[in-house]
Design brief:
Blueprint (H helix, E strand, L loop, with lengths): L16 E4 L1 H5 L9 H14 L3 E5 L5 H13 L4 E7 L2 H11 L5 E8 L2 H4 L6 H18 L3 E6 L6 H14 L3 E6 L6 H14 L7 E6 L6 H10 L4 E4 L13 H10 L15 H12 L20 H9 L19 E3 L5 H10 L6 H17 L3 E2 H14 L5 E9 L6 E9 L2 E9 L2 H12 L5 E9 L8 E9 L2 E9 L2 H22 L16
Parallel strand pairs: 1-2, 1-8, 2-3, 3-4, 4-5, 5-6, 6-7, 7-8
Antiparallel strand pairs: 9-10, 11-12, 12-13, 14-15, 15-16
Helix pairs in contact: 2-3, 2-11, 3-4, 4-6, 6-7, 8-9, 16-17
The chain binds 3-methyl-2-oxobutanoic acid and zinc ion.
Length: 531
């Protein structure tokens, strides 16, 4: 690391600031909605891992977004907390009201500057330029730290882009973010654009240029790193690359690329890479977007060497096929950890090692579930314990509906049937339903007891470990009137995990209906009562 400080970033010259937008651009991805508590938890993890700026949300979007950004600002420690605002005074005021509670607040305001985006508010180039001047000046009067973005910058005419960036800098923006909103650019162009902006825009030398890439052509990470080579000193990214369509630049990829190839990319970040795996898993759970197996850095197979040739090489020298160690990203060897004779203290200490600190009452709950798992499954691995913990938190808030009893009849002879008892607001209801397979029959039984119009958008099963007695993690995503909710659950019985994941999503739907002020009286439907 160099020992000179950049006047632009206020950090060492070779430092690239990491701006995480998992809670804004990531959460905006249809179906990735997180609860208030989950957002706070992710923000705390991001702060602890050394992310420089956390974009916590879009405060004007809803009361919930506002409260989340405000609470994240209040709990923040080292990170700067940023909120997003469109180019109007009302948005900016609301954003400031939320972020001002942070030790280090930032307002991020944006407007679409490409011809296609200018056509939407129907503004001429001059009218838009005036709007940018007015809104950035307003933001800067409220806050010393203002970021401005010309949305769809990579499809904006060069002369106009240069003009508006200059206006934003003159109006007081301290960071200029260059978004590749539709994932259209390529590495050479990405580097060149930043280089030209720094060189040709008046005041370009005095601000931080940021890069914000989407992954539509699979080049987001490459484009972000190229932008840094061109002079950008802030990368905008999300955990697991979460984001709309093909997602955003993945934080773990840029952080590890800068670390592993420091020889040719001599820049560093403040991120503690050993915390990557934990936050990746947590974001996958709370967003309901599982990580693909072959995803770089955080995929289940990223460090697995299964082919004979690779295994042989690995046994002789790990560096043959490994450019980084699993421990660099916080991945521990999958080892046999516990069995049914393990006690409470051993469980507490193992969970602590895995990053879960539990209060006594929480430990008691988890211990009961651990014993049940150990009874069914001979060998309990780290991954099993993590799935158990994720299942525990995914089920928290399941106040209205709970699976009490489930038995399915399945096999080669159709129809398959499910006998289900669902506890609905404290009262047990029972039914038997048929379906095309055990999962379909189970979902039909849930729907018979709790009728709803929500559409199942996604149903996914992942095995937590190897073996036929492995736990299955099931994720479901459902949509009702534009509202998208997710649910996840793990169990050694795939059908039980499916039922619980489905019911978790329905519980979230009830909460969302209530938040929207709709009549969500779950008792208002007719059930067949037990007995
Ligand atoms: O992709 C984009 O253009 C954005 C802006 C709001 C910065 O997310
Ligand atoms: Zn974006």
């Amino acid at each position: 690391m160099t020992d000179t400080t950049s006047p632009r970033t206020g950090a060492p010259d070779d430092r690239v600031l990491i701006f995480d937008t998992t809670l804004r651009d990531g959460e905006q991805s249809p179906g990735a909605t997180m609860t208030h508590a989950e957002k706070l938890e992710i923000a705390e993890m991001l702060d602890e891992m050394g992310v420089d700026i956390i974009e916590a949300g879009f405060p004007i979007a809803s009361e919930g977004d506002f409260e989340a950004v405000k609470a994240i600002a209040e709990q923040s420690k080292d990170a700067t907390i940023c909120g997003l605002a469109r180019a109007n005074l009302k948005d900016i005021d609301r954003c400031w009201e939320a972020v001002k509670h942070a030790r280090s607040p930032r307002i991020h305001t944006f407007i679409g500057t490409s011809p296609l985006h200018r056509a939407i508010p129907n503004l001429t180039q001059d009218e838009m330029a005036d709007r940018i001047h007015e809104t950035v000046t307003h933001a800067r009067n409220l806050c010393d730290n203002v970021q401005w973005s010309p949305m769809d910058a990579t499809r904006t005419e060069w002369e106009y882009l240069k003009r508006v960036v200059e206006i934003a800098i003159k109006a007081g923006a301290t960071t200029i973010n260059i978004p590749d909103t539709v994932g259209y650019t390529a590495p050479v162009e990405s580097a060149d654009l930043i280089r030209r902006l720094i060189a040709e825009v008046e005041g370009g030398e005095d601000v931080v240029f940021a890069t914000h890439c989407h992954n539509d052509l699979g080049m987001a990470t490459a484009n972000s790193l190229a932008a840094v080579a061109g002079g950008a000193r802030q990368i905008e990214c999300t955990i697991n690359g979460l984001g709309e369509r093909a997602g955003n630049t993945a934080l773990e990829e840029v952080v590890m690329a800068l670390k592993v190839r420091h020889d040719i990319m001599p820049w560093s970040t403040r991120v503690d890479s050993t915390k990557i795996m934990n936050i990746s898993r947590r974001v996958a759970t709370v967003s309901g977007f599982p990580v693909q197996f072959n995803k770089a850095i955080v995929g289940k197979n990223a460090f697995a060497h299964e082919s004979g040739i690779h295994q042989d090489g690995m046994l002789k020298n790990a560096e043959t096929f490994e450019i980084m160690r699993p421990s660099d990203v916080g991945l521990k060897e999958t080892n046999l950890v516990m069995g049914k004779h393990s006690g409470r203290a051993a469980l507490r200490s193992k969970l602590k090692e895995l990053g879960f600190e539990l209060a006594d009452n929480q430990l008691n709950d988890v211990f009961v579930r651990f014993k049940a798992l150990a009874d069914r499954k001979k060998e309990v691995y780290d991954d099993d314990l993590e799935a158990l913990m994720r299942d525990q938190s995914a089920g928290e808030g399941n106040e209205h509906l709970q699976v009490k009893f489930l038995r399915v009849i399945c096999g080669t002879e159709a129809p398959q049937s499910a006998d289900l008892t669902l506890t609905i607001d404290g009262v047990d209801h029972q039914t038997t339903a048929q379906g095309d397979g055990p999962v379909d029959a189970t979902f039909n039984a849930v729907k018979a007891l709790f009728p709803h119009e929500a559409r199942l958008q996604l149903y996914q099963v992942h095995a937590v470990t190897e073996g036929t007695d492995a736990q299955a993690t099931v994720s479901v995503r459902m949509e009702e009137n534009g509202r998208v909710v997710t649910g996840q659950s793990a169990d050694t019985d795939t059908v039980v995990a499916s039922a619980k994941a489905y019911v978790t999503a329905l519980n979230r739907l009830i909460v969302r209906r209530r938040t929207a002020g709709e009549n969500a009286d779950v008792k208002a439907v007719s059930y067949k009562d037990v007995g």
